Amino acid sequence: ARQSHIRNFSIVAHIDHGKSTLADRILELTDTVSKREMQAQLLDTMDLERERGITIKLNAVALNYTAEDGETYTFHLIDTPGHVDFSYEVSRSLAACEGAILVVDAAQGVEAQTLANVYLALDNDLEIIPVINKIDLPSADPEMVKGQIENQIGLDASDAVLASAKAGIGIEEILERVVTDVPAPDGDLEAPLKALIFDSIYDEYRGVVLSVRVKEGTVKPGDKIRLMNSGAEYEVVEVGVNSPKPIKSELLMAGDVGYITASIKDIQETSVGDTITDANNPTDAPLDGYRKMTPMVYSGLYPTDNAKFVDLREALEKLQLNDASLTFEPESSTALGFGFRCGFLGLLHMDVVQERLEREFNLDLITTAPSVTYKVDLNDGGEKIVENPSDLPDASEIKAINEPYVFAQIIVPNDYVGAVMELAQRKRGIFETMDYLDDIRVNVKYHIPLSEIIFDFFDKLKSSTKGYASLDYEIEEYRPSELVKIDILLNSEKVDALSFIAHREFAEARGRDITSRLKKIIPRSNFEIPVQAAIGAKIIARTNIKAYRKDVTAKIHTGDPDRRAKLLDKQKKGKKRMKSIGTVEVPQEAFMTVLQTG
Ligand code: GTP
To answer: What residues bind GTP, as annotated (predicted)?
Structure first.
């Protein structure tokens, strides 16, 4: 049957180890796209992805491969992102596969996200094919990497494929291994339809396009389907596969990865992780959905032009369809007007959402500094959830402020344990225990405030461990902390969107630090602008932005035209994303100064 000739697999790797390049080579070798059409990193369809060189959204593509056994196979290749913020995308694509190609850089070896992704693949019972990539590099050491894969991951690496995605070495061997090692999908073709939605996008003409993995039964145009979670029913208009352009087909059957359209206009009714079944002959139980991701970080998104509020709402609704972990609700700010409080998985996620909104929906936005959710015990016995620091009640009403803690497990070679502990301590971490996993690797466990984790913990962890630490954490509980709200005043006016919450012990230092950063960022005006930080009525830091000087280049006496042009350019760029607050022009970066520590 056709089913025995289907292979569904993903490529997983640490960031930059070469999975997009490998995917490109595979598409080329299978003639899925002609050389002429071939654009570097074809699967990274978003401009943003191409510019940043990172994969954000997963993409599924169908391709045909004629193997050495003379048979032609249909491969469904699902590309996955590498950054931790997007690990929910990884687990989504893995749930649609039977196998995974594990790409490890021959010079870098096993790194943090290699481990994290392998564990996700193992959780999904996937067959793993280890590939050691970049063997063309002079610094490549495939034997060392094999050892790491065996010792640190516990996979047999004796038959790992040695490859260079760049030079096109080992690509056929990888495809052969997909045929021989990855199991064909099973699933009863006669059973009622059961299909997993693993992604969806909104198309102006076709409505919602659902990306699905059919687990049981078949689906074809004209069928009446039901989304089990929402209960909504539709008639299928079209089914097909992406290759990588959409190609209609007569039906999708158990084992297939493809798309379904059904003139779905109501984007609220389709959610990723839901199960599709036959409305006339429904299956008894839905598939296990994906773990629902809870946003970790909240921030305010405001249009620089207040008239664009409705456009922003529509854009967020459309984006949410494509990005299940994004949440939003309306809020207002004295300084910024009407906008939305949005929930994100992390800072990169926040950054990407903002950029997608600006590019794909043509909006100009101000993002306020991210914050976690606080639980406030009030003196009158009540409790208040605070997602926005400026909503914190008056100090006189507060009995205690509780902040979310995470249980963090940091896996690191033992040489770096000292550095990890030093960092965790500095971030108010509470040491739990430390386990040796083998001769080299240690699992260090801490309870750490989430607010410390989301800001720069991961970056600091990476830099202090040469990228070897892998971090995994789960929210555990709220604990009381000595927290205070710090307000920022510009020209003696409180700017609610700049308020933040910090530990009392660090409050004054943070206040001083932020006022001096703001002084550098906010452009001069024709009057002096005082910048102050305050806790309640008490001013804890102050500085002044001196009055205006006309041309920033005036003081450069050397006639270096390059330098002058650069400065003027910088000044022009600085004009973007400004918001007038009272009489002061505040650039976007100002709202992010709160994030920077020391
Ligand atoms: P993300 O999508 O950001 O997670 O990265 P990725 O894993 O997809 O990496 P990508 O394919 O973008 O490759 C990262 C860099 O490594 C690029 O500059 C590639 O040109 C380079 N690269 C990929 N494969 C090879 C290889 O076999 N040899 C050499 N020398 N460079 C390679």
So the answer is: 16-21, 133-136
CA of 49 to the centre of ligand 1 (A): 13
Q: Does 117 sit in the ligand 1 pocket, CB within 6 Å?
A: no
Beta bridge partners of 475: 406
Q: What tokens does 331 get?
A: 């809020």
320 lines ligand 1 (CB under 6 A): no
- What is the full DSSP assignment across 457-521? IHHHHHHHTTT--EEEEEEEEEEEE-EEEEEEEETTEE-GGG-EEEEHHHHHHHHHHHHHHHHHH
For the chain, how many residues are written?
A: 598
Cα distance between residue 417 and residue 283, in whole Å: 51
- Distance from Cα 53 to the centre of ligand 1, integer Å: 9
How many Cβ atoms from other residues are within 10 Å of residue 241's Cβ?
A: 21
Establish whether residue 140 lines the binding site of ligand 1, counting it when its CB lies within 6 angstroms of any ligand atom: no
CA 414 vs. chain centroid, Å, equals 29
Of 269 and 306, the structure prediction assigns the larger pLDDT to 306
Helix (H, G, I), strand (E, B) or coil at 540: strand
- For the whole prediction, is pTM greater than 0.80? no
- Confidence band, pLDDT 50/70/90 cuts, at residue 37: low
Token readout for 69 is 């056994």
Is 584 in contact with 491 (CB distance < 8 Å)? yes
Which of 291-295, 315-319, 591-595 is predicted least confidently?
A: 291-295
